Amino acid sequence: MRSKRSHDQTGGPVLSHARPLPHQAVIPSDLCAAREIEEEILRQAETCGYSPECGFAIRLALEEAVVNAHKHGNKGDPNKKIVISYRVDPHCVVVRVRDDGPGFDPASLPDCTAPDRIDLPCGRGIMLMNAYMDSVTYNEQGNEVQLIKERC
């Protein structure tokens, strides 16, 4: 069963949980630096009984969120940081990825599956996150995404 997504007044999703998560890592804006945290989240999910399919969904969405934070939020600047916060329990995995960028309005993104955009290389990461996670929400500034995957 998929959770309902929260939305702000403009129709863009906003964070439904503002409480701090128990684990947090601050890494440089470097895609390799996120691998260790991704692996730890997946190890914890496996220990809690999540299926390989569920693990695949978490990995895919987390990788897309980190790539977006690095590429779009931090503009590839290695001096900027990415903050990954998470909680893994027997019921769900919650991961937040925040960058040092100015943020964006998720409601303003064009449909990457529209015929005039289908050949463009950008825009599929958010579509994949939405497809594989039970909830994808953003903070008000648009520089933090929260991903929730219920155990499967």
Q: Could you tell me the mean pLDDT? A: 89
Number of helices: 3
Strand order of the largest sheet: 1-2-3-5-4
Head-to-tail CA distance between termini: 10 Å
What gyration radius follows from the Cα positions, in whole Å?
Answer: 15 Å
Helical/strand content category:
alpha+beta
Helical coverage, percent range:
25-40%
State the order of secondary-structure elements, H for helix, E for strand.
EHHEEHEE
Unreliable residue runs: 1-12
Query: Strand-residue fraction?
Result: 15-25%
Shape: globular
Please identify the oligomeric state.
single chain
The total beta strand count reads: 5
For the biggest sheet, the summary is:
5 strands, antiparallel
Kindly describe this structure.
By secondary structure, the protein is of the alpha+beta class. The protein has three helices and five strands. The protein has helices at 35-47, 52-73, 124-132, and strands spanning 23-28, 81-88, 92-99, 135-138, 144-150. It has a five-stranded antiparallel β-sheet with strand order 1-2-3-5-4, covered by helices on one side. A hairpin with a 3-residue loop joins strand 2 and strand 3. Helix 1 packs antiparallel against helix 2 and helix 2 packs antiparallel against helix 3 (124-132). The longest helix is centred in the middle third of the chain and has 22 residues, at 52-73. The termini are close together. Mean pLDDT is 89; it is low at 1-12.
